[in-house]
Amino acid sequence: MAVQALSSVERGYDLLAPKFDYTPFRTPDQVLEASAEALRAYGPFGEGLDVCCGTGAGMRVLGALCEGRVTGVDFSAGMLAQARQAHPEAGWVRADVRALPFDGAFDLAVTFGALGHLLPGERPAVFAGVYRALRPGGVFAFPVGAPPPVASRLYWALLGFDLVMRVRNAVWRPPFVMYYRTCPLQALRRDLAAAGFRVTTVPLDALGTREDGGPRGRLVLARKPGSQD
């Protein structure tokens, strides 16, 4: 893990790939299942794309919702090797998600746990690429967690992690981009809308509620306008 943290993002995830599914960084099954359940009301879908697919955990969601072929895209060869081994029936593409090589090919795109590996200034290019990759009427969906209360241990743990990463990137090259506090919902909605999406959210009821009664997580639904809109 120390070697990974001192590597570039791509090299770091190549190193982590064989053990990634056994780390806390993998999206929990509960979140995947809650996302699939929330998306079921908007399907079924045809072709599906997992953006920043990692080892392929999102294939569980796409496989349950898509009637056509499903594809994963990532820039880590190590991650793709693990994904290909776990899901040989899917298609796998190595590419930079800031320049996705697709045009009107998919009906549903998802991403899980990847936005923290993008700097805020990189999101517009990614969202524009996903928009281009979808057919008219297609949906881009991903879960976001509710921000933890300031008084909680989780709030300070995430803040501390981000501060450590910022110090690391200030003194060490190449940078390793992995932050937990760079994706507030309001900023995500703004960037998605700027890319042309119509954005709504739905609560992930299966994840429960916070003490204040709000949902612990929401599913962002960004729809590309259809030909009849």
Automatic annotation (TrEMBL):
<feature type="domain" description="Methyltransferase">
    <location>
        <begin position="49"/>
        <end position="138"/>
    </location>
</feature>
<dbReference type="Pfam" id="PF13649">
    <property type="entry name" value="Methyltransf_25"/>
</dbReference>
<dbReference type="GO" id="GO:0008168">
    <property type="term" value="F:methyltransferase activity"/>
</dbReference>
<dbReference type="GO" id="GO:0032259">
    <property type="term" value="P:methylation"/>
</dbReference>
<dbReference type="InterPro" id="IPR029063">
    <property type="entry name" value="SAM-dependent_MTases_sf"/>
</dbReference>
<protein>
    <submittedName>
        <fullName>Ubiquinone/menaquinone biosynthesis C-methylase UbiE</fullName>
    </submittedName>
</protein>
<keyword id="KW-0489">Methyltransferase</keyword>
<keyword id="KW-0808">Transferase</keyword>
<dbReference type="InterPro" id="IPR041698">
    <property type="entry name" value="Methyltransf_25"/>
</dbReference>
<feature type="region of interest" description="Disordered">
    <location>
        <begin position="209"/>
        <end position="229"/>
    </location>
</feature>
<keyword id="KW-0830">Ubiquinone</keyword>
